[in-house]
Design brief:
Length: 454
């Protein structure tokens, strides 16, 4: 039996009452977080152009683009909202799986829920928790470095699981839906390497394709069956080495949504360890950016490959978000990193560029191709003093979490940062609605609030 059948059986057999309380809490937390990030992303680069393109690709008013309110066919709305969730690199992540589990998933599920109508809060919680489980278990099973963009490809399986759950698919129909999704899977690491905005677009492509796949499976289309372990399946072709020995027995026992990490900063999660380290040192020893002679960050090979890119003149926005030297310089100068630090004028700031050029990011000998930690940061000051720190856990990880207050502040700031800021009342009502999501009879009401302009 191909492993995809085990995932399908897990999804089909699990109901809301099977979810542990901590999985329900985490699902609601990252639902709210991802809605806020997606609303802020409505002001991101290329969003207007992407939404405008949809008008030439088909008509329909099934679902809405968050923060804008534009009505589109459900697959098109899923694509736009998925891009908005990921275009600022502010969405949550499962570190071991190296998967952003909510970006493809939430955008596709909410588009389906708007189109279908009547999806209640308990059903949404169940679908999202299962979707995260599928994507992250699949990611954890990989033993290879990233070649394809796993948040996009594994995210497609997450969205398919969740939509299929809402559509009442049995395990056999879910396998067909997974097969149709896999046949459309796309997104390589080339966009990441180049700092291209197509990285976030790849999230959008897979969200759109998951809606297509479930619609097709619902009508009886049979997809390929051995899509994880077959000779040209996901693991052999997209990933490489893999081991599901500790994954499949944990289905229904380990809920991956409880392991998801917040992103406190709008930059690649691989930058967060070095930001955390340099800010910890600054708080402990009181030095300023002007005191710094040189900084050296030692990171796992994956972290180096993802964010070790040097400072450049004329950096594109997405390049800067994924440049550890740039974000470390910003953190030292400002004490934090925010959405405003990736505006063109901020990226050109000579003080940031000069400090960033004194920061070196060096790969260590960590043998794990998927490890983001531990990271070490060493700061050499102009007076000859040196400060060092090594971090095994990074701020935002559930073992080093954001407080609820910090989580809600991030949400409120993001809701005010969209192309059309949300009304304060809508923001607070959304928080209350997600806190009490089990009582919501139609989750489309969340989208009503996500387009409620101030």
């Amino acid at each position: 039996m191909d492993a995809i059948a085990h995932f399908a059986e897990h999804v089909a057999a699990t109901d809301y009452d099977d979810l542990p309380a901590d999985a329900v809490r985490a699902t609601k937390t990252f639902l709210l977080d991802s809605l806020g990030v997606g609303i802020a992303g409505s002001a991101g680069p290329w969003v207007a152009e992407l939404v405008d393109c949809q008008g030439g690709w088909g008509a329909g008013e099934q679902a809405r683009v968050w923060g804008r309110g534009t009505r589109l066919p459900a697959p098109a709305a899923a694509m736009c909202n998925a891009y908005q969730i990921h275009n600022s690199e502010f969405d949550c992540v499962h570190e071991q799986a190296v998967v952003h589990p909510m970006a493809v998933l939430l955008s596709a599920v909410m588009a389906h829920a708007e189109r279908a109508g009547g999806v209640d809060g308990r059903a949404l919680i169940t679908a999202l928790a299962l979707g995260v489980d599928v994507a992250c278990h699949i990611g954890v099973g990989s033993r290879a470095g990233l070649k394809f963009f796993r948040p996009a490809t594994a995210g497609g399986f997450a969205a398919t699981a969740a939509i299929g759950k809402l559509m009442g698919f049995d395990a056999g129909r879910l396998v067909n839906a997974f097969g149709i999704t896999y046949s459309q899977s796309c997104g390589t690491m080339q966009a990441h390497t180049e700092g291209s905005m197509l990285l976030g677009m790849q999230i959008g492509f897979n969200a759109r394709n998951a809606v297509f796949a479930c619609d097709m499976a619902a009508r009886g289309l049979v997809g390929p069956q051995n899509i994880l372990e077959g000779p040209f399946g996901f693991y052999p072709l997209f990933e490489g080495d893999y081991d599901l020995g500790e994954v499949l027995p944990n289905l229904g026992k380990v809920w991956r949504v409880t392991e998801v990490a917040h992103k406190p900063f709008p930059s690649g999660r691989a930058t967060h360890g070095v930001i955390d380290g340099v800010l910890d040192l600054q708080r402990a020893h009181g030095f300023t950016a002007a005191d710094v002679e040189r900084i050296e960050a030692r990171v796992p090979p994956l972290t180096h490959r993802l964010v070790g890119r040097p400072i450049r003149d004329g950096m594109a926005v997405n390049y800067a978000r994924l440049s550890a030297p740039y974000v470390m310089a910003v953190a030292l100068l400002r004490g934090t990193v925010g959405v405003e630090d990736f505006r063109p004028e901020a990226i050109r700031d000579p003080d940031r560029l000069a400090l960033g050029r004194r920061i070196a990011v060096i790969a260590d000998d960590n043998p794990d191709d998927n490890a983001l930690t531990p990271v070490g940061v060493a700061v050499a000051l102009r007076d000859g003093v040196r400060h060092d720190i090594t971090l095994d856990l990074v701020y935002g990880n559930p073992a080093k979490p954001m407080t609820r207050e910090a989580h809600l502040e991030k949400f409120r700031v993001n809701c005010g940062a969209g192309v059309v800021p949300l009304a304060d009342d809508a923001i607070e009502r959304m928080i209350v609605s997600v806190d009490d999501l089990e009582a919501v009879d139609d989750v489309a009401r969340l989208v009503d609030l996500a387009v409620a302009a101030a």
